User: Fold these one by one.
Assistant:
Number 1:
Amino acid sequence: MTPQSPFPIDHIGIAVADLSEAIAHYTSVFGQGPDHLETLETQGVSVAFFTTPTASIELLAPFGDLSPMAKFLAHKGPGLHHIAYLVPQEQYLLEIKRLTDLGLQPLTPAPTLGAKGKQVQFFHPKSHLGVLMELCSYA
Amino acid sequence: MTPQSPFPIDHIGIAVADLSEAIAHYTSVFGQGPDHLETLETQGVSVAFFTTPTASIELLAPFGDLSPMAKFLAHKGPGLHHIAYLVPQEQYLLEIKRLTDLGLQPLTPAPTLGAKGKQVQFFHPKSHLGVLMELCSYA
């Protein structure tokens, strides 16, 4: 089976320093609040999702002292962080392999647990023209 | 009339140094080529759009010596550049005013001509938590 790329953009990740302040800002901009809040201790982030009729916005703030998000904010400041594509479960590992074979570098040896109970696999921005890419899938 | 926010994410803009190289890369990643190519002399960019089932990807490369995109690349390198929301024409100026009233800073006094013949209005990242936002609309 060949993965049916291109897959839909599921969400755009945005790094923020203060999640409460960012939620207030986006609630004003969108005219409605977030539809999902979660803290991912293993990823070192607290997140808030805002729905639009197409892709969603995921705000990510550092959680804990060793958060990679804290490092990102210290180096680059708040702003655009990653793009996530949603892949059907039956094509998920095939698509990860296909992209890896193309030269994209997975950040972890296997998918990890992300927000909303999804599997997530990140690929290094240096292997994707400066863009951190996520492939996510509902288990 | 109150604008019916949130509006759909139309596309995500990505700054690239070499458009041909980037088109080849994304064509491999997506398994299909771009559906639209255009040079916007007034904006100083050449662009390529790739469709996904939700939002699109817009690759932007500098065009001309005074391109703001060349300045962006020199300062930040290639990567995520902006998020564009699509607003129906009858709500477009109202939504620009609503966001301006919220404190978002328009980059130009009025919308300008963007890709695909659309009107585009950018808002300064400093007024939107580090994210360059575009509102676009079909005239």
Number 2:
Amino acid sequence: MPRHGTMIPDTGAGRRRLMVGVKMSANPPDAGFFAAYTVKELAQGLRDGTFTAAELVREALASIDRLNPVLNAFVLVDREGAARAAAQADADFKAGTDRGPMQGIPVAVKDNIDTAGLVTTVGSAHFKTHVPKEDAECVRLLKEAGAIVIGKTLTHEFAYGPTADRSLQGAAKNPWDPSRMSGGSSGGSAVAVASGMVPLALGTDTGGSVRIPAALCGLTGFKPSYAAISASGVFPLSTTLDHVGILARSAEDAAALFPLLRDPAPQPKHKKARTSTLLTGWIPTGSFGASDTAVVTEVRQFAEALFGQAMRDVAQVAALTEVFASAIAAIQSAEAYEVHAERVAAHPELFDPEVLERLQSAGMVKGWEYVRALKQRKQLQATLAVFFERFDLLAMPTIGIVAPPLQERTLTLEGQEAPVARTLLTMTRPWNVVGLPAITIPAGQVDGLPVGLQLIAPMGWDAWLLDVAATLQARDLA
Amino acid sequence: MPRHGTMIPDTGAGRRRLMVGVKMSANPPDAGFFAAYTVKELAQGLRDGTFTAAELVREALASIDRLNPVLNAFVLVDREGAARAAAQADADFKAGTDRGPMQGIPVAVKDNIDTAGLVTTVGSAHFKTHVPKEDAECVRLLKEAGAIVIGKTLTHEFAYGPTADRSLQGAAKNPWDPSRMSGGSSGGSAVAVASGMVPLALGTDTGGSVRIPAALCGLTGFKPSYAAISASGVFPLSTTLDHVGILARSAEDAAALFPLLRDPAPQPKHKKARTSTLLTGWIPTGSFGASDTAVVTEVRQFAEALFGQAMRDVAQVAALTEVFASAIAAIQSAEAYEVHAERVAAHPELFDPEVLERLQSAGMVKGWEYVRALKQRKQLQATLAVFFERFDLLAMPTIGIVAPPLQERTLTLEGQEAPVARTLLTMTRPWNVVGLPAITIPAGQVDGLPVGLQLIAPMGWDAWLLDVAATLQARDLA
């Protein structure tokens, strides 16, 4: 039951999950230590003497040593810093100092997020040896909460791509099938959690970069409301679309971390009447480009099992797809090129060719198109606010396909060629344009690969969304 | 003395003005009825029976009938509506209903500001017969205060030009020399006030469009802080630069109107310590492009006479000129083209060729350049906020030349060719980029043509700026 008082109808979802034989917390083969624990269990274990923080760090390092050579999740492991932080956490426990649920918990940090004294490459040769002087605000808060930064995870170069297979450090590999992409750009963070190297990771999400790899790797991926977690100290991709997010094994795990990262500044929040029973609007995917029908069907059935009669189709939101797509293209392109203009001019050879080409094309977007896109964003926000007068949640697949093979750039879907990047982004990026909180939760498998259900909530309803997702997942796990 | 408590040093400005033989409220030859009155005198006269509102309207119409055929200030005169409003004002006075200092006062409204039921052309063939259904917010407030809208004044086509000599209705003429331009884009409003057709007019100012014609016509022109007067119902030129402003014969007159138009929503306001004596920073003009040395010298001497020892050069602000110029070019271009993109595509032939060319070039600005300009704006705002910790006012000429001949597009200044448009805008447009309140006050004459001193205040200090300017002018008139 969500603590906020909206009833979630019991539609027998647990039974249905058993029927199809897929556990939501399903693990890829050969997963590491943390695949077996929730954050709550780890926190409890640290307090009842089952584990020490030093032991958790050793387990993390052992899993990384065993799995990372194949999966390429971590691009830097801070053994010394992690050991030091673990010793501090253990000393704190011993002294009776308890900073809350993250104390002593190992966490991975995406490599576009500044870590003081640790090389932060942003996946790019331009920043091969770049060592930030200060922690990003979200890292500072992590450490303040007693969490242990284990290392830095692979990002698609400059976080500018949803495949995480182009970066200074190569490709992250999907733990469900290492010949396939993890999805990105926060690929390393997703792989690190999905493979059980760590229980939690920070990622960033500008068009889906937390939710895409989370969905393709069978995780929960949470992108909060815009600016709910400060992006200060995060290398910008597109400043009005960039969100810091969380990759976790469940919404409950993500919910343990989120309150500690939340920006204390007052955030906009949609004032809506709460319905007595959760009413969910399903967004039909037809207008979002070609999909794998089996994936969409699987996710839809999963959602029906969760929400039953309390779910209605909302074709009107789907009708906005083109506006969403053109708005995000203009906004992201103009903002991204602004960040890189001087680098593209001075050292184009230091970019991955695909990223460079994308940037050069981004640089061609016109100023008036950007201004138009900002107007469209405002209209979309207003339109969605109206939908949320009636619905509590919007739901749709996170992605309409399973993880494609590494380096694949086009797929045949519904009998036509479809670009992989667009297909990965098409259902996640609308929620960056409007800044609404969105979460992906595991929704079963197709061909042995995970698929995700995406839930979108009104502006500022971050904790509520995590709570609803956790309730749905708990029921399923029961 | 300003009511807000900062001492203005007495430097004998009044004596100096008498020496050079130019009264600040100097009138052009052959001026109309309102050249002889302050708004206060008119308001008093309406209350003590010297005038009725109907008489003031008749005087306005008589002046318009006599002068407008040459000067082309008004593009539409609403005889019927003005008579009706005057009858209402007189009935109100008779009934003892007093809505304040604007009741019964004739006002002119620039033709890019919506007036319900009155053709509003924005100076363009595209809107030749356009009749808005509602009043712009500023017009609604004018009427609510009992002011009488006499008619609509010429604007440069789409307010996109500082010369007011290209529009559906031709050129406004400078009352000091009708072979010269009024300056623009609010040329008609400036001419209407300067020639005594009306005591006050509304204009708009996106890069100087209130201050430029005010300075060239010998008026006071006030551009308040960004959004201090709502631009709702004003045809946009560049939405983050557009300001509604006031053209008046003195700051005192402008101050009678401003509080009635001010948006009641909370506005940002710079929190600065007030100095005990007004400290003014003079911005050297060397970096703003070529000027007429005689104009700059005249304005500088005027400022020295006003402020004396309490004025210091602030070369650091002048050093920002290039950033100001590139930021406003990108912002205005992108925003302006966004407004007109579909019109340029569908009916280019309905634009004035010069305006069309400017728009087409504006459409080429890149999205990333606009994003960069928004960043620069924030930096400039921060830098100026620091200056205003030390200074109360910034001062510089409003324009570095006197009114050029109509249709002139290049001038020879300091031995080189200089484009007229850039020369007119270079010192006014910085204050649109950062949204600070700025006022031009008459500062003498060069070759028998008016020149203006521009004063710039911290964000939100609108009433204070008007008060300081009024105090300076009152002393001068004494």
Number 3:
Amino acid sequence: MNNQELIARRLKTLGPTYQNFYDRPLHLVRGSGTALWDADGRQYVDCYNNVVSVGHCHPRVVEALCKQAATLNTHTRYLHEGIVELGEMLVERMPGDIEICIFTCTGSEANDLAAQVARHVSGQQGLIVTEASYHGVSELTRRLSTDSYPPEDRPDWLAVIEPPNLYRGPYHRDDPEAGARYLELARQELDRLEQRGYKPAAVMIDVAWDSNGPLLAPTDYVLGLCAEVRKRGGLVIADEVQSGYCRSGKDWWNCNNYGFQPDILTCGKPMGAGHPLALMATTRDVIDDYSRHYHYFNTFGGNPVSAAVGKAVIDVIESEGLLHNALETGAYLEAGLRELAGRHEPIGDVQGFGLFWGLDMVADRDSREPLSREQLRHLGSLIAEQGVITGTSGRYGQVLKLRPPLPFSRSDADKTVAAIDTALKGFSI
Amino acid sequence: MNNQELIARRLKTLGPTYQNFYDRPLHLVRGSGTALWDADGRQYVDCYNNVVSVGHCHPRVVEALCKQAATLNTHTRYLHEGIVELGEMLVERMPGDIEICIFTCTGSEANDLAAQVARHVSGQQGLIVTEASYHGVSELTRRLSTDSYPPEDRPDWLAVIEPPNLYRGPYHRDDPEAGARYLELARQELDRLEQRGYKPAAVMIDVAWDSNGPLLAPTDYVLGLCAEVRKRGGLVIADEVQSGYCRSGKDWWNCNNYGFQPDILTCGKPMGAGHPLALMATTRDVIDDYSRHYHYFNTFGGNPVSAAVGKAVIDVIESEGLLHNALETGAYLEAGLRELAGRHEPIGDVQGFGLFWGLDMVADRDSREPLSREQLRHLGSLIAEQGVITGTSGRYGQVLKLRPPLPFSRSDADKTVAAIDTALKGFSI
């Protein structure tokens, strides 16, 4: 069916909550590695989809999926090697004392459970996130996603702190005290939370501050925030759905790059490379405490097929050296983006790490006035016309987001930089 | 690895929240149709796992999964035929005005979203469930699952009504006024809810009352409850995760068997036959209202692979006549179970429909004193030793639950009845 018909039938059956990217929605039909093809046979470089962490339709992942799906797929109340082996592989790669894996199907489920566990273990109800945060779509994680509803609807138990954005926030990269200043802002919000009658159960840190950027936060801020929350009896939850699983190029988990040890770590999309598999991992003490009061059973989470896929993804990441590729190709991409920023006024800032970069787009470099969501959507469309798929992010929807599959190559990076270059040349603010 | 080692490694890595069925946990390694095999090569009849609705590892479902997984798997912000076609196939089979499909990965996510939508659309906050209900594991759906936490922790916005259990509840099958009496109990709880300051956003009806039974409720009660909630401004949510998808043998959805029209219908596990695919479906009016304020995006929900699987499951159900099989084989199984009940005192009641049956097990038929959870676990273990896999349910864990894949055969039913017979002969209360 043609795109106009597909769009009409889609709206009729799925309703208006289903959004499309781009001015002219893409109709994708095939993927392989970092390449995608549309219904007209046009090829694209995928510089956006982290979910397919090891690349689209990786043959080893597909093989593991098919083999197990043809053998057995049932739930975790029967014994099966797969989930135990996947759990052990993950625990080997986990930071610090994290040694228990609870599998879910989505990052929302993992973050929802993490918040429930933190409230139970701390005996406190307050939760802490940043402005313009995103942590999921369940009722609880939607409340934790301040980008998804108006500020006046925020519950009293929620403390919303300033994202540590060294370009766009109140304190900048050139200020050596920026970390301490962001921390002081957070302390003030924690005081206000307690004044409203709530002590913190946990701070949930998206270790990429994805929906704000991505951001590279000051280390002293991050460590200070963890210490401050713990001093008040709360836990530290590292939401590594976006930042983890080798994305940084330096470590499996971005919390290790900042040097903080979470009590709970969540990850999601990339661990199944497109198959619904997610994880809440924690310490033995935390789970023992929680388990004395509650059980948790997720019918689909960690089933034999999901476990087979999860194991294959880890194998591919390590046998293909994708951690190292994220570092090397990430640095190469960064250099290209910085060169672009030197030539294009609307690129106000280049911020990110590994294979996760954001271009903060501005109407004016001095005032840092952000481009609008509509302008970014149009820019993304122009880049897609050049054959490269990107996304948007940021507190004001002003960030061009680049977050490709981990096998992204130098050639892919070249094409991406060239496509943005061409699009910006044809782009008027 | 042997079972003892597997159990030890499982406890170490997954922690104590992961429970096993049976005294001697089953270590399953292969499945096909209604048959399962353990690591020792022993074959079992699966009389429990509804998730694999069309049978374990159905070749057409596996083929659809593998073909799409090898072609493209991405999210719903690009156009794709699969999700639209699946949505259209579902809408064709939906009750009444339900014509919009929002896909999620799990029943928890579907029910969580349904409750959020109902609260938004009604402008009211109260939610209504039964005692010993189960609707999911997210923070919100756990609150709606009164079987999972102590009564003293119930939020003020929750009305908990008596399950319409015509065997074990306060009003029995022989009372022609039982439906009206259960309805009156519900009305009283709705009054109490309003006295606590909450008008109802919705009643969430598990149309099998699975965690209580299953139950066959009085039709006048069900219709009266829907009318009562609507009179007070609330919506009706049919949770068809357990009861729907042809389980009843009479209709795709059990709400049609009662003759009520939900505003929102959710379904889950069986629609993906083991693949994480679930659904919140609703009317155009409801989604238009919700969409004016919120978007919903579930990265994995309705991706091309999930859609391919969902389409294959519907094709198999219809081409193999599984709705009819649920009716025919269900009636045959029922007859066998009723014959058993005539010979075994501990079977206090046989209740259910289609391919979903519960044996309410009692220590004494006159007092209806339920067997304990431990006794049921042991009984299930004895039945498993006879080569048949069953489950437990019920407000007191006293119901032996039979809820097989839909291709369950007469031969399977014979083996199941014989296994229960033998187990009960060797079972002392």
Number 4:
Amino acid sequence: MKIPKHIGIIPDGNRRWAKKNGLEKHEGYKNGINQGLCAFRECQKLGVEELTFYGFTADNTKRPSIQTTSFTKACIDAVELIKKEDAQIYVAGNSLSKMFPDELKEYTKRKFFGKRGIKVNFLINYSWEWDLNIKEENKRIINTIDISRVDLIIRWGGMRRLSGFLPIQSVYSDFYVVDEFWPDYKNEHIYEAIKWYNKQDITLGG
Amino acid sequence: MKIPKHIGIIPDGNRRWAKKNGLEKHEGYKNGINQGLCAFRECQKLGVEELTFYGFTADNTKRPSIQTTSFTKACIDAVELIKKEDAQIYVAGNSLSKMFPDELKEYTKRKFFGKRGIKVNFLINYSWEWDLNIKEENKRIINTIDISRVDLIIRWGGMRRLSGFLPIQSVYSDFYVVDEFWPDYKNEHIYEAIKWYNKQDITLGG
């Protein structure tokens, strides 16, 4: 079996899980910490070389403080768990902001634990604008400034990947895949995609 | 019904369609031109404001010339069809390269046709490196240079979007969605994702 070298983990659904289980939204996060360790160990066993966990984004920190406190703590706890393993931990995100937890500042340079092993990256107070050094006043960093944010991407041919399609404009896009090949295009595909899009909860990262 | 303002179209599967129909691979492209016009007209009818078609990438031009000639011609023909409609056409891509067709150079500034109407963008000889002005010798443009390309992204919670997750490292990632919420994580999810990943044809844009 071909093992992906680097796996990205987007651990979404904590608040919906809390609601489903009769808890307050913010209580979802602490119920998702151990799962990160499980995922880490499974990937270690499989021989994955690098893992990136989507912790929280700069946009997420605009949520009510009871939530931001909870998910920040959950991220710190997750890092604490992983540092007891064989791992190389790196935390990426805007550490100059007050939303970045002090406890994780030491990881903004990769740190080694145990027998080293898997590289584990946590995105903490991350944003693609921070990552790409995009400044409000200098939008000329991208060539396609005349192309706006993409709301819905429809891909024909069954592949579930962007293949480099407008990476900046696609950061919040909903992604619909049509299994039929493009030459078998039918107008129904567009309708199905939009029907699906209507069921999505569009948050733009908020 | 909520209509997405901007829809991205990734018209993939032309070569597989040709094979399935007993044709040579390169013959798939010319059988996908009219479908672009159909998609345009449906979106126009629905009130979509902007459409972006993924024409071809700089990576694609490394394919055999019988294919590059065919898909380049198909893109030129598609633009020719759309310019007979009410549309604002813009072609984005590296027009300094010899792989960029002369016929489309005039569209590297947006041109208006008929009663204007939908913005239609074609990505032609496009690459995300070109778009982001990333130069081989200057990789410092991104902050997370220590995080490598992501092979597989697994998202829990059912949403099909990246939400800003490492846009540069994710450009060629395969994207697997687990419907269960993160706190309901099971090790099987990882195995299912990797099983699915093994069925994907990894091309890295080639």
